[in-house]
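PROTEIN–LIGAND DATA SHEET

This sheet pairs a single protein chain with one bound small molecule, pyridoxal-5'-phosphate, given as SMILES. Inputs appear in the order they were entered. The predicted three-dimensional arrangement of chain and ligand is reported afterwards as a token string under its own label.
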Amino acid sequence: MQTKQAKPPGFEAVQEAASRIADQIRRTPVLTSAEADRRAGARLFFKCENFQRTGAFKFRGALNAVRALSQAERAAGVITFSSGNHGQAIARACQIEAVKAVVVMPTDAPAAKVRAAQSFGAEIVHYDRMTEDREALAKSLVQREGFSLIPPFDHPMVIAGQGTSAMELIEEVGRLDALFVCLGGGGLLSGCALAASALSPGCQVIGVEPEAGNDVQLAFARGEPVSIDVPDTIADGARTTRVGDITFAIIQQQVTAIETVSDRSLIETMRFFAQWMKIVVEPTGCLAAAAAMRQREFGADAKIGVLLSGGNVDLTQYGAWLASS
Ligand SMILES: *Cc1c(COP(=O)(O)O)cnc(C)c1O
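PREDICTION REPORTED AS:
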């Protein structure tokens, strides 16, 4: 596939993305909390992508990738196979750019997700999760209909777009001693690492994935991508089974360490955000914060960036998590 040979983007690609998407993305707020600082033993700066359009950072990479297409590619339309935040972000970006969007979703996808993509004008193509492979289906539609495939993470323009979140954070608060970023396929982490190494040299960049699906931690130690079964975790944005090839190349070069967080700790962190900072953060969005708030060796003056990746969560489920103990 074309993206397999694609050269990893550099920081210039992040800068280009920032100007390409500036008029449509929200410059999300950076929040602080004395209680968070107390827990971490350092100064934490939360970049709140739960306030981004479509409720997650994915809109950055999606819009950058759609806008980077040629006229011919735009005319043919875009396809993706994520039913989660990336699918919504692609649907919205294509609506803004007046490009046809096709989102491949399982027949049993939650009605709310189907409706969200449809409300942005996307066409839904269903597949049977038991008997069909969504990537193979998407690729056959690419061949037959000439659509451009924009995958959720392993794509230079997606990575560069995601990196604009860390770029904004560092522009706003200055140099960081460390930056914590959640990690599924690694689009957000690799883009943020490009921004951090250029704008805040020496900043430690720490990727955080669910304990139940630590494939990147294993890959990082082994020096090559590792495939695992679909992990059983409430962090649904990080249920990936294998890191990307482009994202992994950047992670290997630019990331300091990979840590893991338990589901229990994600629930405690969701509760922390509701109680102390009055914000709704989805489980995957809590990964980086959960890890940052257990760090103690940085020192009280250290400046630590924390990416809150999104806030899309089913409210009934969210209420049950907050009420559980
Ligand atoms: C997609 C997603 C992630 C993981 O991002 P990757 O680029 O795949 O590592 C984390 N949090 C949220 C809210 C997401 O939607």
